[in-house]
Amino acid sequence: MIEPKDNELYCATTPQFHGFGESNGDLPFGRKQHRLSELIRGPNPPQAYQIYFEINEALRQNGHQEEFDDNDLVVTDQCIHEFDTRNPPLSNLIYQHSFPAIPSRRVAHYTSLDSFKSIVSSGTLRLHSLRERRSKGGELEPFLTLCGYDEGQVDPTTGEPAYSKIYKEMAEDLFYTSFTTSPDEDLMWNEFGDSHQGVRLDFEVVPGRAEFRDMLYSESRLKLLKDILQIARSHGKTYLFRGVSRGAAFFLSHYYKECESRLLLSRTAGRYPFTLTIVKGERRDYVSLPVAIEQRDVGANVPNENDYARISLVGIQPGRMCARSAFDRTVTEAGLADLVVP
Fold first, then answer.
1. Domain membership flag for residue 159
2. Dihedrals φ, ψ of 340, to 5°?
3. Which terminus of the chain has fewer CB atoms gathered within 10 Å of its CB, N or C?
4. What is the pLDDT of residues 194-230, one digit of tens each?
């Protein structure tokens, strides 16, 4: 159990803090933590005060000065959760710490020649359901397991995997498209550019309501979340992290060479109205966002402004084995020849 020192500015690298990681002992106690340090010195302090104190310490040691107490968090017999479930401050802080938002970035998108033609003719870029990635790419499970949602657990009443339905609903709720900044262009052409027979599209992406974040390939940036989860477990409780499905969509334990950045939409997150039409594709469902070219629109009757993200096409490069006549015809008919990179 973590006990406060007599002074407010104490070193958080003393033995009882081992396991929380690097110290930020130069961060002083704020008003809430000072109050908690006094309360837990008293006789028979409620367990909740100790939990709030330890959570704030974990935040300090991960470089954050924000503090939380009984005005922000609820401690029950089994769990720790936040009063504000629509805009949960602790969950939001942990999520942004683990998966920093990208305000804007020029990125590449490798695709086949047929998909390039579809993007140009429709003036849109598809965001596909994560359902297929879950079944083929093993996505969602690693992060959900870390958060305590283990699909291997069995529901004793039904005999079915305890979290199968949750996993399925999460995967069908999320829509994404992938971009990259990988310096290994050969890998990207072979994996996603139809073995150099496809096209590389360069986009400038500015997110709106959609999330634009880098994929996380190791648990190093998840340290704060793991610290909070461990605090809860040490008190026999579960911390209800309000960012599980989105975090799962941005975490992979492999494919790190792809240097993937994702644009992600959730249809039931409740943070914004989801007004896009979900199309039932042959292999997977998708939604579409418009693509802009400078001040022009690609495709007819497609507005380039929307609330989700501005995706501007700024460069086009055919693969070295691309069918050049078909490629040239497509860019010429669409008036995109000035964007072609030799």
1. no
2. -75, 130
3. C
4. 999 999 999 999 999 999 999 999 898 999 999 999 9
Q: Do 200 and 286 reside in the same domain of the chain?
A: yes
CA distances from 325 to 36, 54, 113, 322 (A): 71, 65, 11, 9
Report yes or no on 250 lying in a domain: no
Longest pairwise C-alpha distance within the chain: 82
Residues 60 and 24 in one domain: yes
Torsion angle of C-alpha atoms 216, 218, 223, 228, degrees rounded to 10: 70
Residue 42: pLDDT band with limits 50, 70, 90: confident
DSSP one-letter code for 178: E
Q: Please check whether residues 234 and 314 belong to one and the same domain.
A: no
Share of the chain above pLDDT 70, in %: 81
Q: Is residue 16 located within the same domain as residue 77?
A: yes
Beta bridge partners of 260: 180
Say what the pLDDT of residue 186 is: 95
* pLDDT band per the 50, 70, 90 thresholds, residue 155: low
**Rounded-to-integer distance, Cα 326 and Cα 61, Å:** 57
pLDDT bin (cut points 50, 70, 90) of residue 143 is confident
Residue pointed to by tokens 């996380």: 216
User: Is 1 part of any domain?
Assistant: yes
- Is-above-0.90 flag for pTM? no
Nearest Cα to Cα of residue 263 among 309, 195, 317, 227: 309
Host domain of residue 308:
105-129+174-215+261-339
Tokens of 258: 């792809």
Q: Per the structure block, which two tokens stand in for 275?
A: 């007004």
Instruction: Give residue 141's pLDDT.
Output: 79
